Amino acid sequence: MPRIVVVSPPFSSHAGPLATLAGALGAQGAEVFFACGEEFAHLARGDSVTFIPLTVTRNANTGVAEATRQPSTEEARLGEFLEATRAGAVPTLLTQARHRLADMLADPEGVLRKLRVLDERLKPDWYVTDQLSFAVTLALHCMGAPYATFCPGHPTYLPASPEAYFGVPYDWPQALRPDHADANRLLAAARENDVAFTNAFHAFVRRHAPAAPSPGRAFALASPHAVVHGYPDVPWLPKIADGPARLFAGHMVPPNSRPLDAAWSLRLERLRRRTERIVLVAFGTFLSARDDVLRTVIRGVLDGLPDVGVIAAAGQRSEALADLAGDRAVVAATVPQQSLLNHMDAMVHHGGGNSFTECLRADVPALVLPFSSDQFAVARDAERLGAGTVADPNTLKRADVRTALEGLRGPMSDLARSSSSQLTSRGPVWAAAQLLRVMAQSAPVR
After folding, report:
1. Residue 25 and residue 46: Cα distance in Å, rounded?
2. Is residue 256 included in any domain, yes or no?
3. CB of 26 within 8 A of CB of 46?
4. What would the pLDDT profile of 386-421 be if each residue is shown by its tens digit?
5. pLDDT tens, 108-135?
6. Residue 128 forms beta bridges with which residues?
7. Which domain holds residue 23?
8. Which residues form the Erythromycin biosynthesis protein CIII-like C-terminal domain (predicted)?
């Protein structure tokens, strides 16, 4: 069995799935090291995975972005990003495009230096790295190290054609389609980023590994052996004819998810005594800061749906929303989302890949309110699957919440149920087995 180093950026929504994959690889006999920021050491559970401290980016998110200590420049960019989400989809994506070099390629020399030291010490056979850790992928390319890519977001984050650009949704949900002028502005910014990143990659390889092959188009650089997607293989995804094995695992929920603890079981029991249905509301580790939208959603449930209870994850804004808590509402900083979903009747989320796949796996329909990043593409998939409905978070009214959740009372579509079945038959154990098979067949020599 191979010795594998799984490298994760210090972001909760990325480290969790990568640690789950690391655990599944270890459980199947591989010798696995989980390399991430110190705050995530607890994710390397059991005897099969060894934690290695490694920092590969200047910013971080340990569970609630606003509560994570980081340099002032990173805090300022986070604040600018959150403010941009109030202006709408295209302004947010343009802000993210402007931040991209600083966010995702801040210190490639430092990352290469650290990985070379780690490689000399551990001498792994393989690496697994997050596709959005561009500096890590670039370093591994320069080192000639065998690696697999884990794609944590929408599969189109790996461009499938020359006409596809990172940061431009492959398709938009109906409620958030931009006009022609805004769409062109976004496309121009994405093209500019594509050129800037590609030039930076080529210059870096020329300086540090002139004998290495060309990295090609920067955002398309990935393992030539295997790409693991924590996402279902929905039929309309753009296909890549040639290249690495594409392993669509469906989700990255641990095979033995933790049951609800006593405190959460009691909260759930109290809500069930007072309501017929319960809705989970969570916007991920960054967007819980949008307490204005959280308030609209919670009030929409409490005022318009007297038979429905609500559990809301509000991050640093839980105190600001504490006035909404009561017999039919629980407001907490964080919630055990994966465990709670097995007991929910619907969810309101931001279109994050983890929330989408976890809902689909649990057969829970969703109201999706996308704000940024790949969330628009994920929301469009939920819409096309019939796994939920999509609305613009910035124009959302309480009555819209009531109407949307009333529309989610029936069963999900046959297509959504088919995808849900695919998810339950796959997951991290399936992905680990497939990945180990690819590694055994590839057996590259360093």
Report:
1. 12
2. no
3. yes
4. 999 999 999 999 999 999 999 998 766 777 777 777
5. 999 999 999 999 999 999 999 999 999 9
6. 6, 148
7. 3-251+427-442
8. 310-409
